[in-house]
Write a structure and sequence with these properties.
Length: 350
């Protein structure tokens, strides 16, 4: 099932993940405001998917511009990019994709507005396709870390729904399963919005991979009981030193995995690494509406007037991470040195 698809009539369709698993609904986005709203309310979610959706959102915005010249066009596109960028502060792929799109425009030698608009669409398609390719490469490289028989713990949803397709953390699991390994998955429900319960279990069931749902608070006892062999998670932003921001609850899993001597792997494309941020302390953490914590399925679960705190992400320090799986290879400690080396090698390839 497609996370998103570009239609020939110039419309972006996004799978509304807030309706899953009970309903499969595609939202028709005909302007960048529709895309921004979809990102903001988590109809599309997951760092790579947000980046690709924002790229197409920029295309939609640009197509409706009537700029007089290239300079005006670039300025107006920049304003649209700023609007899209403001929707989610933690996932670096959002700004990465928007900056890449604008860089491609600035590098174009043409001044014809129609050709500039076509250039944007080409670049959005390229971002989408590159993510698909990267995910499959990540899966093949990462699955080599998994034993032939393994139970894997994950949190949130880092599958096809969080990307252009196939997935990051779940992509590794898919690849291991396809390689004939006997893999079972424990999925944390992922409060407050239940991405693990609603999305990860649905994806794995669709793929025929055994999955068991647990509440977030069960992870420690699960590890102590010897029922899990390793942890694999995705990432929304990775600092230059390897500190990683991911869905709230990830840090707790990393601490527990360290205590129980279990490998803790992060799977993410290189585009999720933000070299401009030295450590995890500098990663902006999105705080969402308190109502997400105080309700479940629209129904109140706490007394009226109860206060709540709702950070959407937490940061896992690099010393708790066994390895970072990317499309260009598996990165180990020393992360600062090896991340820089991997990124430089990728830049040289281009």
């Amino acid at each position: 099932m497609d996370t998103m698809r570009w239609l020939e009539d110039g419309c972006l369709e996004l799978l509304d993940q807030t309706a899953l698993p009970s309903q499969v609904i595609y939202l028709k986005c005909r302007n960048y405001h529709h895309v921004a709203q979809a990102i903001l309310r988590l109809a599309v979610r997951g760092a790579p998917a947000i980046g690709a959706a924002a790229a197409y959102g920029l295309v939609l915005g640009a197509q409706q511009l009537n700029s007089a010249d290239k300079s005006s066009f670039l300025a107006e596109v920049g304003a649209i990019a700023a609007h899209l960028s403001a929707t989610r502060p933690t996932a670096v792929n959002l700004n990465w994709a928007l900056n890449r799109m604008q860089k491609r425009l600035r590098a174009s030698r043409t001044t014809a507005i129609d050709k500039l608009k076509a250039t944007l669409l080409e670049e959005a398609h390229r971002i989408y396709q590159e993510d698909l390719t990267a995910n499959r490469s990540m899966g093949q490289l990462g699955q080599e870390l998994l034993p032939k028989i393994a139970n894997v713990l994950t949190i949130c949803n880092a599958g096809a729904l969080a990307t252009a397709g196939y997935g990051t953390a779940l992509g590794v699991i898919r690849a291991a399963w396809d390689a004939g390994k006997r893999i079972g998955v424990f999925a944390c429900e992922t409060r407050p919005l239940l991405q693990g319960a609603r999305l990860t279990t649905w994806e794995l069931q669709e793929a025929g991979i055994p999955v068991t749902l647990i509440t977030d608070g069960m992870a420690g006892y699960l590890m102590a009981s010897g029922k899990v062999d390793l942890v694999i998670v995705g990432a929304d932003r990775i600092a230059a030193n390897g500190d990683t921001a991911n869905k709230i609850g990830t840090y707790g899993l990393a601490v527990l995995a360290k205590h129980h001597n279990l490998p803790f792997y992060v799977a993410a494309p290189l585009s999720t690494i933000d070299e401009t941020i030295a450590t995890g302390k500098d990663i902006p953490i999105e705080e969402r509406e308190k109502s997400e914590v105080l309700t479940l399925g629209g129904h109140p679960i706490a007394p009226p007037g109860t206060s709540a705190w709702n950070p959407a992400f937490d940061t896992t320090p690099n010393h708790l991470i066994s390895a970072i799986i990317t499309e260009s290879g598996v990165i180990y400690q020393n992360y600062r040195k090896n991340i820089a080396r991997t990124l430089n090698a990728k830049l040289f390839e281009r």
